[in-house]
Amino acid sequence: MKLPVPRYLFEYLDEVSAQLTRGTPRGVFLDLDGTLAAITATPQETRITPETRAVLAELAMRPEYAVAIVSGRAIRDLESIVDIPGIFYAGNHGLEISGRGVQFAHPDAEQRAALLGAICRNLEGRLQAIPGVIVEFKTLSASVHFRLATAEAVPRVRAAVLEEVAPAQEQLRVTEGRQVLEIRPAVPWDKGRAVRWIIEQSGCDRFASMCAGDDKTDEDMFAVLPDAVTVHVGLGLPTTSARYFVKSPSGVFAFLRLLLNLQAASGIDPKDTYSIYAASAARVDEKETMATPLEGGAAPHLQVVTETQVVTETQVVTETQVVAETERRNFNGPDNSL
User: Fold this and answer.
1) Lowest mean pLDDT, pick from 218-227, 248-257, 275-284
2) Of 236 and 333, which is predicted with more confidence?
3) Does residue 321 come out as left (phi exceeding 0), alpha (psi in the -120 to 50 range) or beta?
4) Where are the strands (E) in the chain, listed by range?
5) How far apart are CA 39 and CA 295, in angstroms?
6) How would you classify the pairing of strands 102-105 and 134-137?
7) Of 84, 121, 113, 82, nearest to 96 (Cα)?
8) In this structure, what DSSP letter does residue 4 have?
9) Can you tell me whether residue 175 is helix, strand or coil?
10) Predicted TM-score of the model (pTM)
11) Is 31 considered catalytic here?
12) Catalytic, out of 14, 31, 214, 227
């Protein structure tokens, strides 16, 4: 079945803001690599910007939100990179979850950790002669990264992984993402089920929640929240069931900034709750996303500004002019030929 083409998020902010203000708490489910942070050559290089961390921390402090980072990384890596208290961390594609007083680890995945470790050791031996290949053992899952390998080497990497996993195919499975092969326990659990578990624990309103991701495994999140604000990040995935898209992590950052303004709907004084990043006479050139509080403390009208404007200090503006995501002009819709 051909999926509908996602719509450019910043052209539908009225629709999105109306949906998100219909219920609380609002779940904010975010992938890390390629969504909150740019893809890097090696996993160890990934960082989120101080500005992104500040916005996430501010959202985490508000009772109207339940923030969760849902990633293929191990929880220990997520906690180290993101480093924000009061949020959920779902690592290893949701096989382990912690935060806000809850703890979860899939029991079948734990039982297969020793088997997975042995396979990773074998792969390290087999693949060490191929430059640019990284075997990452994450206890409950594993990743074989080939981003730095030559195109000619990729079939050898893929064949080695499949051969090593084949004897344990009833216990483990292999999936492929963006220049990575994932080895996971063959259990009925994924990012989508992790999101559902977090919603049950936190009482989030499904309809008033949002999730964003850039890779195939994030489609599992979109599937369990078909009516939520689902956002695909980037233009490279052939098909996606997300309802909206942004071009890059900069677009995600811009939208998270806008979420802060939705707090005006609860009657909180904007001066007490907004993070003011614009100087009193900051000039915005290019297409900029901003949220302007209406008179009387009403819910802000989220809008895309397409002309140069003078922005007062009561307006929240995306820094670095990111959502001059003149993205739209470069977007021709996903190529549905897998």
Assistant:
1) 275-284
2) 236
3) left
4) 7-8, 26-30, 65-70, 88-91, 96-99, 102-105, 134-137, 142-145, 172-177, 180-185, 205-213, 229-233, 244-246, 282-284, 288-292, 301-305, 309-311, 316-317
5) 41
6) unpaired
7) 113
8) P
9) strand
10) 0.78
11) yes
12) 31
